[in-house]
Design brief:
single chain; 495 residues; mainly beta; elongated
């Protein structure tokens, strides 16, 4: 069972300001010599659109049922109060932009104040490693651009390159990038919502920046320019070559109520369903993640380099051939402060790469991540041999109030540095040094059947068996308040 919400965003499709002009485009019966300001005087081609400098409050409306081969690359900037809106008019299927193998199907470069709505965007080309994107917003030596919305857009079939580092040219479905080296550049106000992304290479939805060097990421480039007011919500992503959703350089960025199914499918490097990178206080919550691959190792969630005070909460990860979570700060980076709480990992797998074991929850690669709290989660992995593991030279993670369920013949916890207190172990031998362990069947209502299956029966030994956690978030996965004492696991409502 998924975690998607049915409620639509209040920022639904709408025309621009009443004071702006409306321009219409019809690929079948339009005429570029017409005024373009009414449906019966619509323009015909993207060339005419791209030659126009739009003003704040203007609308560019594409005829439903129309299709164009080429790049939509409009000019001009709006404002947060008077954005320029690209949308659809008429009835029938949403208008289609097929970039035909170009750099992007929809390309906004060094402009701001744009909203893209109700389109279908594809960018079909040869699988030759060429960099391609569906919707690409690029600011290069621009300063801080404000107000970008991509809502109810369908992006699919974008064959591109496999290059994730921000100093490289990047492919993806919907990508925002701050580039250049002369003028500090970033974004203020990015919303990607209610959209579908499928069959794309590299990253499904991502923010990237070449303005990223700071104390937590000294290996970066230029100075640090944050991306503020970033929200990625209620999107559906599938068949992804690399990462699902990437939040880079965010300050208080949020990714929530997204569905990611199938990631890391066409890559030579480890990828994640959702991750934050070089960000302060990112929140990743209420997402459903599945379909990660085993090779190269993919992770549903990654606590990654350069982050400070990250929160991953209320997520449902299941049926990944790769592990649930990686804690990893790359060489040339640090990370400090991460809270992982009220998540459910169901049927995620461990990996054995030769003799190297990667458990369902893996702590450690190059540098340690300090001040990590991992509490009130459910790790249900009846087919995984290795449940939790840590490199012995890494900073300990605090594991509290969790429920660990392994395979019937037993699963391992190989973690010499972690601090374990008030956890429940089922089919998992309790290693030495774990305090207040509870060895029992947790008595879930229906495990293995979806996120609601991890509610606790009335006779569960996990009820009221936890220890209070300061700053516990106040609610559980299903919205119930945290009792005193709390239950173990992600479910806190009365049994």
């Amino acid at each position: 069972m998924g975690l998607q919400e049915a409620v639509r965003s209040s920022a639904s499709a709408r025309p621009g300001s009443p004071t702006g002009r409306r321009y219409y485009v019809n690929s079948e019966s339009g005429d570029d010599s017409a005024t373009g300001t009414a449906p019966d005087t619509a323009w015909r081609t993207l060339d005419q659109v791209n030659a126009t400098v739009f003003q704040p409050g203007d609308s560019l409306l594409l005829r439903r049922g129309s299709a164009w081969h080429g790049v939509l690359r409009p000019q001009g900037s709006g404002t947060a109060g008077d954005p320029i809106v690209v949308g659809a008019y008429g009835t029938g299927a949403r208008p289609v932009i097929n970039g035909g193998g170009a750099r992007a199907g929809v390309f906004l470069r060094n402009v701001q104040g744009w909203e893209i709505r109700d389109l279908e965007v594809t960018n079909i080309g040869e699988a030759d490693g060429t960099t391609r994107t569906g919707v690409y917003v690029l600011l290069e030596d621009y300063g801080v651009g404000a107000h970008y919305v991509v809502d109810d857009v369908h992006v699919h079939d974008v064959v591109g390159c496999d290059a994730m580092k921000p100093e490289l040219d990047n492919s993806g479905g919907i990508v925002f990038k701050a580039a250049g080296s002369d003028v500090p550049t970033g974004f203020d106000g990015i919303q990607v919502s209610n959209s579908t992304v499928s069959g794309v290479d590299n990253v499904g939805i991502g923010t990237l920046s070449q303005w990223n060097r700071r104390d937590l990421y000294p290996a970066g480039s230029n100075t640090f320019v944050p991306m503020t007011n970033v929200r990625v919500f209620r999107n559906r992503l599938s068949d992804l070559g690399g990462d699902g959703i990437l939040l880079q350089n965010g300050i208080d960025a949020v990714a929530e109520h997204n569905r990611v199914d199938g990631f890391g499918l066409r890559t030579n490097e480890s990828r994640a369903g959702i991750l934050a990178f070089n960000s302060d206080r990112p929140i990743v919550q209420f997402n459903e993640i599945s379909g990660g691959v085993a090779s190269p190792p993919s992770f549903a969630l990654s606590v990654d380099a350069g982050n400070a005070h990250l929160v991953y909460q209320y997520n449902y990860s299941h049926d990944n051939d790769g592990p649930f979570m990686l804690f990893c700060a790359l060489t040339g980076s640090h990370a400090d402060g991460a809270t992982v709480r009220y998540n459910v990992s169901e049927n995620d797998r461990d990996l054995l790469l030769g003799t190297f074991e990667i458990p369902v929850v893996a702590n450690g690669c190059d540098n340690a991540i300090t001040n990590v709290r991992f509490y009130n989660n459910v790790i249900y992995s009846p087919a995984a041999r290795a449940l939790i593991g840590s490199r012995g030279d890494h900073t300990p993670i605090e594991f509290t109030n969790n429920i660990f369920v392994g395979r019937p013949e037993g699963s391992t916890i190989n973690d010499a540095v972690g601090v374990y207190d008030h956890n429940l172990y089922h089919n998992v031998p309790v290693p030495p040094g774990h305090t207040n362990p509870l060895v029992a069947d947790p008595c879930f209502t229906d495990p293995g059947t979806g996120v609601l299956g991890y509610r606790l029966r009335h006779d569960s030994p996990a009820v009221a068996a936890g220890v209070p956690i300061p700053g516990d978030g106040g609610r559980d996965l299903h919205g119930a308040p945290i009792p005193a004492p709390p239950n173990l696991g992600a479910h806190q409502a009365p049994s």
